[in-house]
Amino acid sequence: MSYSPSIYKFVEGSDAPVPLDMRVVRAILTPYDVGDPAHTVMGDGRLHYWVRAADGSEAEIFVDRTGIQVERPHSGPGVFAIVAELAARLEAAIFDPSRGTFFCGAEAHAHLPADMRQEAVPIDMTGEAVEAALTGPRPS
Fold it and tell me: Deepest of 64, 90, 117, 125, by most Cβ within 10 A of its Cβ?
């Protein structure tokens, strides 16, 4: 199954995502990057990381000014722990496009736009909780 969850930060109920703190993004992703450092900054200015967690799980991650796209994350709590750390430290929400649902911690939940806040699912920002939210059974 191929899917691409995304991470966005909202502030004070605004409908538009706000710019991410790139220092935080780099600090979290750089230690796990197994790609060519010469290709981290793409021609269009986006950042590109191929991350590998200690348990061997991997994902390709693209970062632009206001969002992070996680391409094809492998099963395993390690890569999802990296995703959880990004969301937690940025106080951002994880969007699952296959379900049309936002998952987030309490801090990020308070800042979502009102219509998103009603349907967002608060979760603990741990690798296990993020993996379960993104890959677990769908409600019927």
Answer: 125
Which residue's structure tokens are 């993996």? 131
Query: In terms of DSSP H, where are the helices of 1-140?
Result: 22-29, 77-90, 106-109, 114-119, 127-135
CA separation for the pair 28, 31 (Å, rounded): 7
User: In this structure, which long-range contacts are made by residues 106-111, counting pairs with CB atoms below 8 Å and at least 24 apart in sequence?
Assistant: 108/9, 108/10, 111/9, 111/10, 111/11, 111/12, 111/13
Query: What is the distance between the alpha carbons of residues 112 and 95, in angstroms, rounded to a whole number?
Result: 12
pTM: 0.91
Contact indicator for 50, 36 with CB cutoff of 8 Å: no
